[in-house]
Design brief:
There is one protein chain. The chain is of the alpha/beta class and 241 residues long. The protein has one domain: TIM Barrel. Helix content is 46%, strand content 14%. The chain contains 9 helices and 9 strands. Strands 1-2-3-4-5-6-7 form a 7-stranded parallel beta sheet. α5 links the parallel β4 and β5. α8 crosses α9. The protein is globular, with a radius of gyration of 16 Å. It starts with 9 loop residues before the first helix and ends with a helix. Bound molecules: zinc ion (ZN). Zinc ion (ZN) binds next to loops.
């Protein structure tokens, strides 16, 4: 439910798609160039790659802000209703906060207007992000690689929004705690990647192993975890497929 697919080689993309006939790759973008790349992957694999439009908060100050309006125009033209990777980040880039809020607002408005789904990055800004979504009456959103406060996770879940679990839970204690505690109705699965997290190169190929860990830690079957995540994902993607 969250991968930077365009950053993998073509052979890797084929390998990932062939690894599991049921896998659907929700493919985020970060700027105009990556959005174009994601759109062409969707053309190649229409049923397996869901294209998402986004301007990553880390790109503020690095790429021209004029890209934001251009991305939204492109998304309208291509009928794209998945929005991501977008969000707010107080942990890694607090210095661009004001602009982040403006940019995020534009993507939230777009998602609401097209009845789409938001794929959100919010390190250090989980509460602020949720309050913007609540004010805009957003019904479909997921907080990617959730490592926020545990009490807030319940507020997110009760609002019908989701948190995603990432194979980083193999080595990130905080995330493993979320994976143990989050009610199954709240979770979706993702890998991010090909980002290298503390020596772990994240790829969708690691999701099965992560499901095994989640199931074992919770004392449920892998099937139960997979079925819950699939049903939750379907609910989010309902609007975009
Ligand atoms: Zn990402």
């Amino acid at each position: 439910m969250h991968v930077h697919l365009y950053e993998f080689s073509r052979d890797e993309v084929r390998g990932i798609i062939e690894s599991d006939p049921g896998i659907v790759l929700v493919s985020v973008s970060e700027d105009v160039e990556s959005f174009q790349a994601v759109l062409s992957l969707h053309e190649e694999y229409p049923d397996r790659v869901v294209p998402c439009v986004g301007f990553h908060p880390w790109n503020i100050g690095k790429e021209p802000l004029s890209q934001v309006d251009e991305l939204i125009r492109m998304a309208y033209r291509s009928d794209v209703a998945c929005v991501g990777e977008v969000g707010l980040d107080k942990k890694f880039v607090p210095e661009t906060w004001e602009t982040q809020v403006q940019v995020f607002g534009k993507f939230v408005d777009y998602a609401v207007e097209v009845g789409g789904f938001l794929n959100i990055h919010a390190p250090g800004a989980w509460r602020e992000t949720l309050s913007i979504l609540a004010d805009a009456c957003v019904e479909r959103a997921m907080f990617h690689w959730y490592t926020g406060p545990r009490d807030l996770m319940y507020v997110i879940g009760e609002a019908g929004l989701k948190v995603s679990l990432n194979p980083a839970l193999k080595i990130q204690r905080k995330h493993l705690e979320i994976a143990r505690e989050a009610p199954l109705g709240y979770i979706v699965l993702e890998s991010d990647g090909p980002y290298n997290y503390r020596g772990l190169r994240l790829t969708p190929l690691l999701i099965r192993e992560a499901v095994g860990i989640i199931a074992r830690e919770r004392g449920v079957s892998e099937q139960e975890v997979l079925e819950a995540a699939r049903a939750n994902s379907e609910r989010l993607l309902h609007a975009v497929r």
